[in-house]
Task: inverse folding
């Protein structure tokens, strides 16, 4: 339970009060989502700017990014 509470504090899990306890569920769908969220949280705009620079330097990455953004 301590581990789950700590994961909830890090926004990896969501928890809701249920009686005297809690119900936990995943807050993100995969480990990549956790990693990206943490990098953006820790480095903010600098992380996003770096990603954009990499996409500009790599046409294949830029096309993949554009395709993914259209899906959402």
Result:
């Amino acid at each position: 339970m301590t581990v789950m509470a700590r994961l909830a504090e890090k926004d990896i899990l969501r928890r809701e009060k249920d009686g005297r306890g809690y119900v936990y569920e995943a807050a993100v769908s995969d480990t990549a989502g956790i990693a990206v969220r943490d990098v953006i949280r820790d480095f903010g705009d600098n992380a996003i700017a770096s990603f954009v620079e990499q996409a500009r330097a790599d046409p294949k990455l830029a096309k993949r990014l554009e395709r993914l953004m259209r899906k959402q």
Summary: The two ends are 35 Å apart (CA to CA). The CA atoms of residues 1 and 19 lie 16 Å apart. Residues 2-71 form one domain. The first strand starts at residue 13 and ends at 18.
